[in-house]
Predict the structure of Cupin domain-containing protein.
Amino acid sequence: MNENHRLGARIREMRQSQDMSLSELADEIGKTSSYLSQVERGLAEPSITALREIAKALGVPIFYFLVDDRDKNAVIRKDERKKISYPSSDSQVELISPDLNRQMELVEIRLQPGEATVENPLPHRGEECTLVMEGRMYIEIGEKDFELEPGDSIYYVASVPHKIVNVGEEELVLISAITPPNF
């Protein structure tokens, strides 16, 4: 199957999964049903502009149609995770998401008692949600601070300087979802 056929099949699959007819999508993007049918069958290659319109109408990012199927459903085995590091920290950080070329990054962070993610609170762009899996976590976000236990989570705007510290007697294990990716 050539690239046009793969692209067309992905568009058709997404359209059908949303119970949208060919003519409904064509109307939404200001094209004819005939044109869209040719795109879906791999007989016509949409321009980048047309592909953006299709992606917008279907509510998916344009890259959804451009990345290989294998990349969309990437399985990352625990022993194959990429290790990353915070500046000036000995914490263990593993990338749970496939890579940093996505719209979101998921990391597992392990801190020993008394250890912090950074020496001084640091900001980064985007938003973050952190879930405590094991141990006790102290987090400073701007002028506020919170203490969390296993099962607790916190969602915050990451552009506010923040810092995480293990205030427990055992290893702190947490999962953080960060968008957009920052490492």
